[in-house]
Design brief:
Length: 332
């Protein structure tokens, strides 16, 4: 049985190897922390299938890492029903590892050069209709004014207290939908990355590539409200995160997990289909194309390295066009 590698410790002699590979991914490849974690876990899984070296401290015998071993590792996981997308990523991790190991003298040859893997299914997750996206944002906005219990203002009207976290959450959702940025890109923003005059944010994307992404008036209004209440954040802001655009309850930078929970919660409140933050990104891309944006512009906004990735969204737009035609045209 092939070990998944997740949740298990590496052999003692493999720890330094994995650390060196991780440093390479961070410093030379510029991969995101999420991708680095996934690649490290994949390589740990691969090393676990190799026999231990015959001498010295316990370590995997890299001399046994050949094309047959790579194919067997992937075949075993395929037989266990692993998704094609996961298999494709694991193959990519293996090829990156064997290429690095060969260049650094750890492998005499690079068996990954001949490793083939199934292409991931070109499946686009569910996206929101424009009206559904508006419902989610309206629901988030409605939470930004919380009535105080049993109190009245001097004018006799019910007093309201603004919870900074609700203003932050509304701004997070507005900015996610307005820009289509990835969650990691959003939580990595600093205040100085926001250009309110030109309504642009500076985003550091995959591979350390920087891009400027525009946002509209509704997101600008949400930013205005958030930046006003941000100074009154209830927790002491940690010095290391003082520049972060979005803050968590404990004063640190808002985490990706909190954003995912927020999106799931607000789609439920709005009564629309359940989505992860990446679903909002897909919705943004789909709505841009449906509204007449060209592929190259959408590619730049989303930070796709390949236009082929952006082209996937044209299928959704085409499907919706056919559906609308079938419903509306008298001779459809």
């Amino acid at each position: 049985m092939v070990s998944s590698g997740r949740g298990s410790a590496p052999r003692v002699g493999d720890q330094a190897l994995l650390d060196a590979f991780e440093s390479f991914l961070h410093l030379q490849r510029g991969l995101s922390a999420h991708t680095v974690r996934a690649y490290r876990a994949d390589v740990l899984s691969l090393l676990a299938t190799l026999p231990a070296a015959s001498s010295g401290e316990p370590a995997s015998d890299l001399n046994r890492l050949d094309l047959t071993a790579l194919r067997g590792w992937l075949a075993e996981q395929s037989g266990q029903g692993m998704a094609r997308a996961t298999l494709a990523r694991r193959a990519a991790a293996a090829r990156t590892f064997t290429g690095w190991a060969h260049r650094t003298g750890r492998l005499a040859a690079d068996p990954g050069l001949r490793l083939l893997a199934p292409k991931p299914d070109s499946v686009i997750p569910a996206v929101l209709e424009v009206s559904e996206a508006a419902a989610v944002l309206d629901a988030a906005r409605a939470f930004t004014a919380v009535p105080e219990s049993g109190g009245e203002s001097a004018e006799g009207e019910g007093a309201t207290a603004v919870d900074p976290a609700t203003v932050r959450d509304w701004c997070v959702l507005e900015l996610l939908y307005a820009t289509g940025v990835r969650v990691a890109e959003l939580v990595g923003l600093d205040v100085r990355d926001v250009n309110r005059t030109d309504r642009l944010i500076r985003v550091l994307g995959k591979g350390g590539k920087e891009r400027m992404v525009p946002f509209g008036i509704p997101a600008d209004r949400a930013l205005d409200d958030w930046l006003q209440v941000r100074a009154a954040w209830p927790a002491q802001v940690a010095p290391a995160h003082r520049d972060a655009l979005f803050l968590g309850r404990r004063g640190g930078r808002l985490g990706a997990r909190a954003v995912r929970e927020l999106v799931h919660r607000m789609t439920a409140v709005a009564g629309v289909r359940d989505l992860a933050p990446h679903g909002l990104r897909h919705s943004t891309a789909t709505h841009l194309l449906a509204g007449g944006s060209d592929l190259r512009s959408v590619q730049e906004v989303l930070g796709h390295a390949s236009l082929a990735t952006t082209q996937r969204y044209t299928h959704i737009s085409a499907d919706r066009l056919r559906s609308a035609f079938s419903q509306a045209h008298p001779r459809a």
